[in-house]
Every structure is written in structure tokens, then in C-alpha cells.
Amino acid sequence: MRSPPRWHRPAPARLVAVALLVAALAGGFAAAAVPGDGYGHARRLYMRNKVLEMFYHAYENYMTYAFPHDELKPLTKSFTDSLSELGNLNLERLPQDYNGSALTLVESLSSLVVLGNLTEFERGVLWLSENLTFDVDARINLFECNIRLLGGLISGHLLAKDYNSDLKDGQYKDQLLHLAENLGRRFLPAFETPTGLPYAWINLKYGVMENETTETSTSGCGSLILEMGALSRLTGDSRYEAAALRALRKLWSMRSSLNLVGTTLDVLTGKWIEYSSGIGAGVDSFYEYLIKAYVLFGSEEYWDMFHSAYLAVQKYFRHGPWYHEADMRTGEATHWQLTSLQAFWPGLQTLLGDVAAANLSHREFYNVWQRFGVLPERYLLDFGMLHPTEKYYPLRPEFAESTFYLYQATKDPWYLEVGEAIIGSLNYYTKVDGGFASVKDVSTMKLEDHQHSFFLSETCKYLFLLYDDSFLRNQNYIFTTEGHPLPIRSAWHEKIPATHVPSNLTFVKDDSQPIRVSALTSQVCPETVSRQSVGSPWESACHIPDVFPTHRCRTDDDCGVESASCKRRTCSTAGYCGLWLAAY
Ligand code: DMJ
């Protein structure tokens, strides 16, 4: 296994004000890479290297057996042009010499920089500059193409600009941005609808095809603003951001009186098709992009949308640590299911500063992870059983992503142990000679011949950042839903966002050398923190327990003081004590 060269660069000019605010917003991303959290330097290094091995095993097998096609089939050591297949493309219509979009390479670019391998990053940038073309008769999914290809190219461009002086001869000449612009232009016909809501599918060469389906999903038309907004800021062509924003505003105008949205809709009529929705499939990144757009662009409009949407989710979908689905018109529960995609939610909550709620849900996901060894795609909460058909685990990143955010926010080494469990499972169950294979059925651990590109852009990246966050030391980033980092720039901000996150570490008493531990280690708002390595419980200095041990409440008076942040807890509309937004 190749061990990639380490590199150093001078600290770039920093946007100090933004950096501090966003670091606070993100729970302390600017923290030192090796904090004194009691985890141990050697163990951290060992885990970091283990993730490096995983990434390069996946990457090199892709480069050997699949590149320049889209994704690797690790069991048969072959390839799939999945980006086109995502669009149900009739492969026979592709030009004879079509070689795919090198999707996994595009998706790997930002990870290579995060991992410190600028040489391989540069190699990838140069190859793509010379070979990638979007002028193909391919029907593709706008959402997937946006988050994977456009996001990968834009993030790669921004990183190449930042690191240009370290690239060979400083020769980067915006090639990735030109590719991104070329791709973005091909997206625009999709938005030419009476509502401004984009078609879910377009042909890269010919635009919207005759008899194209008019059905799309909430995430499909509500998660475009980061990439298309960034493209407009970088090119000076406002059309991309305007199209994405118009679609987002239209979508938001379709919310119910409860501030809930549905899952699928018609782009021509602007009417909902599926009224039931949750925080998982078909909706997830809509919420994610509202808050991340606020962080990236600083516009209050995004915050206002997010704030109302978040409160509605907490009120109508949340049941203790779980999130069920509900009818957007009535708020009545429809499906009681845990889905693997929902596991991103604790990460979003951590970004927001709702760390206690994030920890509570993260724990439940971890319980399910431990039970099956990985997260099943769908688990029926009301029957306590796997969904009969959706038993797969396609190497999804969401649980690792939330673990990374929670560790950044708390520096609680327990999350590093969760990371160890994730890494252990991935290596034990999914590593094969030809890469990493998806799990077809978590009850048998039978494998499927597919290594999704997000395994490299997200799963490995978040696991690596858990043990080595030096990439985050000199710059603040927001990660797109596909894990591609976009730097926070004051020039892109209408207004610097206010901070929403208090300090979330508790100083404990009873020790001449106070140990910084997080009360999140054991439960929500605990009185004491007990860790095996410490031996005895440590009392939180500021903790006042909630009146009811279940943390249920009728009024704010039933709530105590959060031991992790020393903040007064309040009663949510759903009747749970927490650090709710309304309290700030
Ligand atoms: C990724 O492609 C993105 O995170 C997307 O938003 C939904 N989830 C997949 C990976 O699970």
C-alpha cells in the first residue's frame, strides 16, 4: 500500500472574524488536531493510518479496475457507469468510445487533499482537465450530478486555488472551474418550468427530453443551492444561483401551515404528490442545505427557512431519540421507521448547536449499528424488525459523518471509539480483495458488487477527519451533502452569521488537575460522568437535573441546567427538555 507524502503549506490569509464565528457555529472546528482528550496519540495515529489504508485500498482498486468509468465493482474487479445508470440511461445510445465520467476520481479529489496527498490530487486534476467531457447523450439525475460531479469539481477547484503554490509549478489555471461551468450550463434547461422547480432528469447533450417525468423529490430540487450558488460566485454568472434559489423559494412556499414539506412533487403544477415525509430519503439534504447555505452565504432568508423547518421537524417528527414520518398537512405520524440516511441528522444538529439532542439520537443509531454490524437501510421501529426488502448497507457515510461532528463539538473520546467500531465493521464485513463492497443484506452480510463513489468522498473522509483534522486547522469549511468542502469566505457573505453554540465541554470538579470531559459520554444531561479509564464518576460542575428522569416536561420550569454547556434547558413544543433554538 502506498503511503502518501505529507505536505505542509504556509497558513493562508484567514478570515478571522468569520473563522471564529463559524468555528463556534460548527462547534469548534478550528481546534487543535490532537487535543488532550485522553484518547492517546499512538492510538489516534494507528486509527488515522487504518483509514488511510482503507481509502487507498478503495481508490487504487478503482484506478486499476474501473477508471475512467464511474464506479468500481469490487467483487468482479470491473466497472459500472453508474452516473448514467442513475439516469436509467440506455447504454446502447452512448457513443462507442464513452468511457464514463470518472465519477469516483472527481469524488476523490477533495478527499485526496484532506488526506494530504497533493501529488495524486494534481494528477487527477490534470487528467480531468484534459479528458472529461459532458457533451454526451446521457440522461442523468440532476440532484446526483449536482452533488457528486458539480460539487466535486467546484470543491476541487477551490482547493486547487488554495494550494496552487504547492502544486507543480503553480500551474493550476481554473480547469476544474471551466468544467464545472460547462456542466452547470447543461443543468439550466431543467429549470425552465412554469414553477421554476427543476426536472429531476435531463439529458446532458439535449436538455429535457420529450415525455420526461415531471415528478421530483424535495431533496432533488431543494439541495442545489450550495453548488450552484458557489458556481455563480466563482464565475460571476448569476444564473445558477438564481435558478437554485428560485426553486428553493418555490418549494418553501409549498409548505403546509405546520411548516412541513412533503417528499415528492410535480414540477409543472407545483403540487405535492407524496404528503408523508420525514428527515430521510427524498428530503434529508433539503434541511441540510438550508442551514449550510446560511453558513456559506450568510443570508438571513436561509436561516429563517431553516429555523421554521427545524422547529417543525422537532415538533412533528421527533419521538424521543427517534424521528418518524408524518403527513405534512396534519402532522399525524405515518411511518415509524429508522433509516440509514436519517443518521446525518445528529451531525446537522451539532452544526446547529443542539448537541444534547444530537447525542441522544446518535446513541440510538449506534445501538442499531452494533446490533447488525452496520446500519440497515430501513428498520421498522413499530415492529422492531428489518424492513423486508430494504436490508442493505451501501457503505453509507451518514453515521460516520455525525460521529465526526459530535467529536468536533465535544472532543469526547467516546466518539473516537465509535469510529473504531465503524472502521472495524467496514474492514471485517465489506473489505474484499478488489475494494470495499456494499452489503446486500445485513441479516446475512451477503455482499453486493458495488463500491459507491461516496465511500471515497464521504465515508473515508469523515473517518479520517475524526482522527486527523489538520485539514481544518487553517480554514473553515462547510461540507456539501456529498462531503465536498467549500471554504467559508467573507466575500460570499451578505452578513456574518451569529453564533448559536455555547461551549459544550464541562469542567469537572474533584480533581486538582481538572479533566475536560463531556457529559455526553453517558446520557443526556447526566448528573455525573463515568468513564472506565477515569474509574470513578465525575460530577458536572453546573448540572441541575430535569424534574423528570425521562426529560419530559410541561413547562420550562420542569427543565434543569445542561451539564455539557451549563446552559438553562427549556421545554420544547414536543415536550422534551433541551437546548432548543427558541432559547437563544
Ligand atoms: C450521498 O450521496 C449524499 O450524502 C446524499 O445527500 C444522500 N446520501 C448519499 C450517501 O448515503
Q: Tally the helices.
A: 17
Bound molecules: 1-deoxymannojirimycin
- Our estimate of the beta-strand percent is 5-15%
Bulk shape: globular
Query: End-to-end distance, in Å?
Result: 50 Å
With strands numbered from the N-terminus, the spatial order across the biggest sheet is 5-6-7
In helices, the fraction of residues equals: 25-40%
Radius of gyration: 23 Å
Brief overview:
The chain is α+β, with helices and mostly antiparallel strands. It contains 17 helices and 26 strands. The chain has a three-stranded antiparallel sheet with strand order 5-6-7. Strands 12-13-14 form a three-stranded antiparallel sheet, with no helix packed on it. A two-stranded antiparallel ribbon has the order 1-2.
Keywords:
alpha+beta; disordered N terminus; 40% helix; three-stranded antiparallel β-sheet; 11% strand; binds 1-deoxymannojirimycin; 584 residues
Structural summary, described in words:
The chain has 584 residues and is of the alpha+beta class. 40% of the residues lie in helices and 11% in strands. A three-stranded antiparallel sheet has the order 5-6-7. Bound molecules: 1-deoxymannojirimycin (DMJ). 1-deoxymannojirimycin binds next to helix 11.
